Amino acid sequence: MKFAIQINSSPYHSNAGLTAYQFIRSVLNAQHEIVRIFFYHEGVYHAFKYATPPDDEIQITKRWSELARDHQIDLVVCISAAQRRGLLHSDEAHRQGKQDNDVADGFRIAGLGQLVEATLLADRFIVFG
Amino acid sequence: MKRYLFVLRKPAHSGAYLQEMLDIILITAAFDQSVSILWLDDAVFSLKNQQQPERLTLKDTAAVMQSLSIYDVTELYIETESLQEYGLMAEDLCLPVQTLPRKAISEFMRGFDVVFAG
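^ Those are the sequences you sent over. The predicted structure of the assembly is below.
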């Protein structure tokens, strides 16, 4: 079965993102497919490259990057939600006269059309947070 | 084509929540999908008429909602009890919406392929 996932909550506002991560691991273990994970609203805070939690806490952004690398999962961050909250990749930062690339490995920035497309391709769409 | 239901549960101006929900609603409509909206709980306030958000430098989300028909988004529903709990009536709202009793909501939701929980 094909699953599309949306995550709306930031890592430290609730555990919805962590619950989504554990659900996605279970989906993959059960040989199902993840069409796309879309980060929206406060969910964009999962993609900040420079988030630096203490060593004894879960490194959720790193976990997402590893998931994307190990399972070729498409991690998409909504561009308008991201820009509102100060998350810019290098092209956009340069265009806006700003510096740096804040987007963690494995994530990409794209439009809401990617979310609608994911819900059209998937058998199940699940929203966390 | 899939049938989409967007469930709104927060009032206008609780952060960018409503603006961002309206963005998905309009994009989904632009993909030529069937789009319905259901207002529950505190979200009924987002439909209150005579809002003056500009005075507080807030986005006029009610104006965006009034443009939904341009995008063929005309299936608009509101829970009767949510309206009653806040002492609102249909004439207090800025859009024509159909009322649904609370006991009919779960059956109503089963009629959709995709539900965006708000």
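Chain B has a mean pLDDT of 95. The beta strands of chain B are 3-8, 34-39, 75-79, 98-100, 114-116.

Shout if you want it in another format.
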